[in-house]
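Instructor's aside before we start: the two examples that follow are unrelated to each other. I chose them only because their records fit on one page, so don't look for a connection. First example below.
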Amino acid sequence: QVQLVESGGGLVQAGGSLRLSCAASGRTFSVYGMGWFRQAPGKERDFVAALNWRGGFTNYADSVKGRFTISRDNAKNTVSLQMNSLKPEDTAVYYCAAGPSASGPTTATLVRSWGQGTQVTVSS
């Protein structure tokens, strides 16, 4: 099983940008599709973005399309989430996740490993 550690969260003003990173260790990183989920206080954990094991196929939640970009570097065992034009409603704990190689985890039920989460707060 792969172990995941997120970094890069913080406080940013609306309209700003943040870049989240997730470092993987353990089993071979490149066999997994990877994704990001987020959970706001009192809400369910929601899908944000995913990509397949090679990074050539990506999938985004409608709420982040055009603003967020997911990418991976298999040589460095990392996956990133570039977040631009941030809005207060993007405030949440963001979780890195490993899942099916062909698509990445697009629902929580497909997740095989979770990171511990990193807080993103967007002020208005």
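Example two begins here.
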Amino acid sequence: QLQLAESGGGLVQPGGSLRLSCRVSGSTLDYYSIGWFRQAPGKEREAVLCSNLIGGSRNYADSVKGRFTIRRDNAENTVSLEMDSLKPEDTAIYYCAAIKEYYCSRYAEGYEAWGQGTQVTVSS
């Protein structure tokens, strides 16, 4: 059974950096595109970045362009989200999710497995 587990969240000051990790178990990363989503209090879940199974990535959130980077390591079965120049509006629970497609989707409904989420708080 496919399982995902996020780690690396925490409290950081504005302008700081965090690196989130999503570890896949129960299957191999070779079969999945992996997306990172986030949900802020009182807001809907939104797609942030995604790593395509076939290669490359997609950025779905203009607000993180140039600040967030997604990296995939098939050998380690992990996908990381590197976040720089963090802003208070980046505060949210961050989730990774797997979809068995060559390409990512920005729609949460298409993903078959989700991690439990990790809290990121950006505050001074």
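Residues 68 and 83 are 4 Å apart (CA to CA).
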